[in-house]
Design goal:
Layout: H1 2-18, H2 22-44, H3 46-53, H4 57-119, H5 147-185, H6 216-239, E1 252-255, E2 258-261, E3 268-271, E4 274-277, E5 283-285, E6 290-298, E7 302-308, E8 313-323, E9 330-331, E10 336-340, E11 350-357, E12 360-362, H7 365-378
Antiparallel strand pairs: 1-4, 2-3, 4-11, 5-10, 6-7, 6-9, 7-8, 8-10, 8-11, 11-12
Helix pairs in contact: 4-5, 4-6, 5-6, 5-7
């Protein structure tokens, strides 16, 4: 017993002297840490693991599917809102594009009308600047398109173009009315074209989708063109009226129409025209469009040229020194037809100018005064 106890004590002392191998020690330590980590993870995931292991996987999947469905609905709602906004913008852009096309067409019409007005001497109407070929969007401070501002810009340009059209019509109508009024006081009625028939009617029916609508712009343009055509006819009628001065340059009116002291007898005598004292050789002009009806001499008048202006109205130019026109010649207002002289019963070089209506002389002064007012109005 004592020998066995001593042997065991000797083995214990030997084990104490040698200790635990290091590799074994670190292996056991690593195993302990791994076990602790697994235990902590198991504790954290215990509810889900328990449900999955307990047959509750259908509930978990259903919850995920519900969340995904909710997110899908939210995304669809956002997309729908964006699409609606984008659709609204597209509709507004489409409207602006259509307005721009109308504006360009309107601008082209006004340009043609202004060109026609310029040909007729209506130069007081200015054409707005041409709109851009491409629709230019106005942007706000954030850089996004400001559709309201862009629409307002397009509307403003359309209003300016419409005002130009109205300005042409107003100018043409006012000038036509002035010419008609001035000549009317002289007993001259212009043969103006009758306005187009404007009778309209029909049953009252509901509007039809897709049916073409009458363009107010075209109607306005037609109205402006009608005003220009009336003005053109009035101008043509004006050229047939002897209201233009028959002489230019250095001259003065030396005698009026009516009773006066006769320069040769000293007694009262009737003077059938206006006298314009001027140097010999000064050009004598036709007071209106017409046809030269007589070239020659008449008693008391000396050398004479007479022009027939139609509608029973003619003019006589007397005491001439020479002729520049011949019988049957078509002449325009301002055409040189003779030269100032002192032939016939005359005290010095001057032009004797008469206006005849139905072969009876009338006072030329109201004609020439009306012409001055009309020319001042025409600019």
């Amino acid at each position: 017993m004592l020998r066995q106890s001593a042997s065991l004590g000797s083995q214990g002392d030997q084990s104490g002297r040698h200790g635990i191998h290091p590799a074994l020690f670190y292996g056991m330590f690593a195993l302990l840490l791994g076990a602790n980590a697994l235990s902590a993870t198991a504790l954290l995931m215990a509810p889900d693991i328990a449900r999955l292991l307990g047959g509750q996987n259908e509930m978990v999947l259903s919850a995920y599917e519900d969340r995904l469905a909710q997110m899908r609905v939210e995304i669809d709602r956002l997309h729908s809102r964006n699409y609606a906004q984008a659709g609204d913008i597209n509709l507004q852009l489409q409207d602006l594009s259509q307005q721009q096309e109308v504006l360009l067409e309107q601008h082209q019409l006004v340009r043609a009308l202004v060109s026609k007005a310029d040909q007729l001497g209506i130069a007081s109407v200015t054409l707005p600047e041409a709109p851009p070929d491409d629709l230019s969007l106005v942007t706000n401070l954030s850089g996004n398109p400001d559709l309201a501002a862009t629409a307002a810009s397009v509307t403003r340009m359309m209003d300016e173009t419409q005002q130009a059209m109205n300005g042409i019509a107003v100018a043409a109508t006012q000038r036509t009315d002035s010419i008609v009024s001035e000549l009317g006081r002289l007993g001259i009625e212009l043969d103006l074209p009758a306005p187009e028939l404007d009778g309209v009617g029909g049953p009252l029916l509901a509007p039809t989708d897709g049916a073409a609508a009458t363009s107010p712009m075209i109607e306005d343009a037609n109205a402006v063109m009608e005003a220009l055509l009336l003005y053109k006819a009035a101008r043509q009628g004006l050229e047939l009226a002897p209201v233009h001065m028959p002489i230019t340059g250095n001259f003065r009116q030396s005698s009026g129409y009516g009773n006066r002291k006769d320069p040769f007898t000293g007694g009262r005598a009737f003077h059938s025209g206006l006298d314009f004292a001027a140097p010999t050789g000064t050009s004598v002009l036709s007071a209106a469009d017409g046809v030269v009806s007589f070239v020659g001499e008449r008693s008391g008048y000396g050398k004479v040229v007479e022009v027939d202006h139609g509608n029973g109205i003619s003019t006589r130019y007397a005491h001439l020194s020479g002729y520049l026109a011949h019988e049957g010649q078509q002449v325009k207002t301002g055409t040189p037809i003779a030269r100032v002289g002192s032939t016939g019963r005359s005290t010095g070089p001057h032009l004797h100018f008469e206006v005849h209506r139905a072969d009876q002389s009338v006072d030329p002064k109201p004609f020439l005064d009306a012409g001055k007012r009309i020319l001042a109005m025409l600019g």
